[in-house]
Amino acid sequence: MTEFTEIPVIRLGDRPDSEIAADFRAAYGTTGFGYVLDHGVDPALIEAVFDASARFHALPLEAKMQVAVDRSHRGYIPINSSTDVNSTLADVTKPNQSASFMMMREDAAADPATYLSGPNQWPDLEGFRPALEAYSAAMCDLGRRLMSIALQAAEITDTSILSAFDTPTTWLRLLHYPPQPATSAGDLYGSAPHTDFGCLTLLVQDDVGGLQVKTPAGHWVDVPKRDGTFVVNVGDMLNRMSNGRLLSTPHRVINRSGRERYSCPFFYDPHVQTVIEPLPGTGTPRFEPQIFGDFLRGELEAAYEAHKPVRK
Ligand SMILES: O=C(O)CCC(=O)C(=O)O
Ligand SMILES: [Fe+2]
């Protein structure tokens, strides 16, 4: 694998997809991360989501606990309630030092046959729901465009997998990281080293910093805020679909800035019933087929208190 020292920039604008796909291949075949510029998303939508996040996290704990995360993974995830125990990247024993609000796809009702389906839980906060819904809709449009570019970048010839995103699995996570003491233990993380489990992550962050990406040689490269960009990275499912051509790179967050940090990742993934496997055009398959929902269940049950299997 090729060593890297910085995160590449990919400009969208109105360039032809074939040109963007070439840049995408160069970036995601080596770093797995990129700054996406000229993406066309209204900055007012991004500002509104940060404002909504700050107002939510400032609520009293009781108000946040009224929308505590449910079994369909929607709502408030308090600090010290998730641990990346499945991580093969670090010996993780301590829970992540962050709290978050999770919005997923809005379904009218939970369908017992569809893992993680259901309506969102909304706090009683003026303007919160419309801000998140407008942002999520814009991220779905951008996610779809980037998925199509990613398939081209991986030289996938049959693009019928895009229909798995007609009813996508989406996760908008409003994260709040309190400052960690400068002297905190080396294995205490805002977010422990991990790879993202889906297809594409589109992240906006404030200017506090703390996100780092691991290079093949084991160095950690800072990913600071760059105005007007999304940090976009490839997750495990797109890594498998591309038969390893696009990389799902380990990353972590340590907030030793002394300030509170806010970030808003949006995860753009296929429907849970999608079979994930190396797609035509990518050579001899290096991965076994797997149903996305089965994979997710394993990850969520291992990491989150709210998902531990109920004992009967
Ligand atoms: O907060 C960040 O900058 C990154 C968060 C992250 O990696 C995640 O939620 O998967
Ligand atoms: Fe991540």
Automatic annotation (TrEMBL):
It holds the Pfam family DIOX_N. It comes from the Bacteria. SUPFAM superfamilies: Clavaminate synthase-like. The keyword Metal-binding applies. Its EC number is 1.13.12.19, 1.14.20.7. Its cofactor is Fe(2+). One of its GO terms (molecular function) is metal ion binding. The keyword NAD does not apply. Keywords: Ethylene biosynthesis, Iron, Metal-binding, Oxidoreductase. It catalyses: 2-oxoglutarate + O2 + 2 H(+) = ethene + 3 CO2 + H2O; L-arginine + 2-oxoglutarate + O2 = guanidine + L-glutamate 5-semialdehyde + succinate + CO2. Pathway: Alkene biosynthesis; ethylene biosynthesis via 2-oxoglutarate. One of its GO terms (biological process) is ethylene biosynthetic process. PROSITE patterns: FE2OG_OXY (PS51471). Residues 168-270 form the Fe2OG dioxygenase domain. Belongs to the iron/ascorbate-dependent oxidoreductase family. This is 2-oxoglutarate-dependent ethylene/succinate-forming enzyme. It comes from Phaeobacter gallaeciensis.
